[in-house]
Amino acid sequence: MKIKTILTSTIILLSSITLSAAPFAEVDSLRHAFGRESVNSSKNTGTPYADTLDTGNPGVKVVLYSNGTWAYKRDPAVLAKEKVFNEYWDTNITNPYRDDTKAPEDLHLWIVDTLDSYCCPNKTTPSSGYGYRHGRRHTGIDLPYPKGTPVYATFDGKVRLSDYVGGYGNLVIIRHANGLETFYGHLSERKVIPGQWVQAGEVIGLGGSTGRSTGPHLHFETRYRGYSIDPSWLIDFETGALRHRMLHIRGWYFNPSQRYVQSVDDEDAILEGDEKARIEAEEKAKKLAQERERAAQAAIKYHTVRSGDTLSKIAVKYHTTVRNICRLNGIKETTTLQIGRKLRVR
Predict the structure, then answer these.
(1) DSSP per-residue codes, 194-217
(2) Which residues lie across from 246 on neighbouring strands?
(3) Cα distance between residue 280 and residue 274, in whole Å
């Protein structure tokens, strides 16, 4: 095959090139500049593999697609042996990480490099954001998604969980080579099984409204070692683009109230610019996160059950619903109320 000959020659040529020594500062600057590049969403649907070629690196293959295109890809068989796909691996629970795993204070995480692909979950305006919602933590964002519409994997990875899970309904969790996990909830149907390797843009399920849901939408989460962060730090859902190839994660991103802050993202792009301005922007964002958390905590209200109280009476008193009180406290409408028990009403 002619294309095989051309690609093989290209690989041999590339493998014979020796990179000239460059100052570490220059290399780091180039690495950062590449990491700050945005990536447009794309899909390889409808273009199955036609063949693969070796590159000399056992972990990397040249993949030939049936439509005549090709790309360098990591070999899933080699990737599957890496620690990230074996440590804390559980196909039955949403968070397999033990309490001894701590959120990093400062981390530069490659999201997509030259060997990876990216597909936006849905180019749209989120219907519900990250953080506290009605006094209850919302660990992801909600994207409008008609029932039965194909849901695509955001990045290349391995399916860790595919099951019906409480409020999530039909849920698929994919772990990626960088340790990040993406959650896809409320699906009407799941199309993948645990242990299956998927490419970005591959169909993993269908949109729906299963679990605790008020209507068809996709609940999308991004977590690192069990800790959730606002997906908007990674993706601009209005344009569908991945904001940067490399994400600089600060420890306070894991704050339950911390949503994406544009000013911090802009200041970080300066790198070696006005350090004072960058520090001020970050401090401002931290303060905003603290204020949001205090406001969220202040919005939480409890009621101590007294003689004669019923769920309906309590709901009327606090301008809420019996259903909401049951949801907040994990009880049923038929639950007998014990005098002195504290019920969360908001």
Answers:
(1) TT-EE-TT-EEEE----SS-SSSE
(2) 110
(3) 10
Residues 196 and 315 in one domain: no
Q: What is the pLDDT of residues 104-159, one digit of tens each?
A: 888 888 998 888 889 999 998 888 888 776 667 788 899 999 999 999 999 999 99
Phi, psi of 328 (to 5 degrees): -70, -25
End-to-end CA distance of the chain: 66
Q: Residues 142, 127: contact at Cβ < 8 Å?
A: yes
Q: Is residue 57 part of a domain?
A: no
Shortest CA distance to 167 belongs to which of 107, 135, 213, 212?
212
Residue 257 lies in a domain: yes
CA distances from 124 to 199, 240, 258 (A): 22, 8, 21
Q: What is residue 80's DSSP assignment? A: T
- pTM for the whole structure: 0.70
Among 150, 98, 126, CA closest to 260? 126
